[in-house]
Design a protein that fits this description.
By secondary structure, this protein is an alpha+beta fold. The chain has two domains: about 100 residues, Phosphorylase Kinase, domain 1 (2-Layer Sandwich), CATH 3.30.200; about 200 residues, Aminoglycoside phosphotransferase (APH), C-terminal lobe (Aminoglycoside 3'-phosphotransferase, Chain: A, domain 2, Alpha-Beta Complex), CATH 3.90.1200. Helices cover about 45% and strands about 15% of the residues. The chain contains eleven helices and nine strands. The strands form three sheets. Strands 1-2-3-5-4 form a five-stranded antiparallel sheet, covered by helices on one side. A hairpin with a 4-residue loop joins strand 2 and strand 3. The protein starts with a helix and ends with a helix. The mean pLDDT is about 90.
């Protein structure tokens, strides 16, 4: 980080947060939603500054921070967001060039490439995710307003570089068939983290999960959508083959807290998950997952694969 950037950032942090005198700035590779910068204070305390681009709204960032702090107070491994001085804007202040700036206590750990995760690691991830959803005591079960399908349809109708890029990557006929099939279906109820991937989970040297980060896409939906994120990210290799052993380890742990009578309708979950990926890509929040073009042409294949891996554990 050059002196000009450091001077500007220091001015914002000192104005809006009680962190002490900053003596060092260091850019980091943490998560995938925002720019992350470590700051070290003269009191030898470490914080992390998160700088989100303007496409993220204050409301969604505050919702994610609120959820993360609730879990943190329950000793769950996630980010502890620091309230700004005055706290009139939640946890968000104005950052450089229209960005949104937040500060958290520095999280320990590093991300690990998906192919280096083994069955035991994924079992731990499954248990942690299941507890994450169970521990959240302030779940808002109201659907997104307007519904996700309406938002996606509007974005697809409006010419934009993101829409054109999406249509160039996907089979337009398959995409339209998928959208048409979702009409009339009720929104899913509950909440999701929405940003689970290899960059958003930190582990220590003993491969224990130390923090879940990337809370900018916390939203309404089903907790099982987070499970689909894990399945696609960790349990499908680059050739499109299912890593069945790893998938079963994850699903067995994730579903261990669920009564058998409440196991999910994976087809409905996968459909809604697909729609959310389209929405996130159109908004610029996330890239489409690897192999999404094949998934959108035949969503039942993915739901059947998940259900099959689940059934081996039932």
């Amino acid at each position: 980080m050059d002196d000009r950037e450091a001077y500007l950032l220091n001015g914002i942090v000192q104005r809006d947060f009680r962190v002490g005198r900053v003596i060092r700035f260091r850019k980091l590779s943490r998560g995938s939603q925002c720019e992350s910068i470590e700051i070290l204070t003269s009191e030898r305390q470490s914080f992390m500054v998160l700088i989100y681009p303007p496409i993220y709204t204050r409301n969604q960032l505050n919702n994610g921070a609120k959820k993360s702090n609730i879990l943190f107070k329950g000793t769950f491994p996630c980010l502890h967001f620091i309230e700004p001085i005055g706290a009139n804007t939640g946890w968000v202040v104005d950052g450089p060039q229209g960005s949104h700036l937040m500060v958290v206590k520095f999280p320990a750990g590093q991300s690990l490439a998906c192919e280096k995760w083994n069955g035991q690691d994924l079992s731990q991830l499954g248990v942690r995710l299941a507890w994450m959803h169970r521990m959240s005591v302030e779940i808002d079960r109201r659907p997104m307003d307007p519904p996700l399908l309406v938002r996606v349809t509007r974005l697809l109708e409006e010419p934009s570089p993101r829409r054109d890029s999406l249509l160039s990557l996907l089979d337009a006929n398959a995409l339209q068939r998928f959208i048409d099939c979702q009409k009339g279906k009720a929104p899913l109820q509950g909440w999701i983290h929405g940003g689970i991937n290899q960059s958003s989970v930190l582990l220590d040297d003993d491969r224990q999960i130390t923090a879940f980060i990337d809370w900018g896409l916390t939203s309404h939906g089903s907790r099982f959508e987070d499970a689909v994120d894990v399945f696609v990210e960790w349990c499908v290799d680059e050739a499109g083959q299912i890593r069945a052993m790893e998938a079963r380890s994850f699903l067995d742990a994730f579903l261990s807290l669920e009564p058998a009578s409440e196991y999910p309708d994976w087809q409905r979950i996968v459909d809604y998950w697909c729609m959310r990926q389209i929405f996130n890509a159109l908004m610029g929040y996330r890239r489409l997952p690897r192999g999404f073009g094949s998934i959108i042409r035949n969503p039942p294949f993915l739901s059947a694969a998940i259900a099959l891996c689940q059934s081996k554990n039932s």
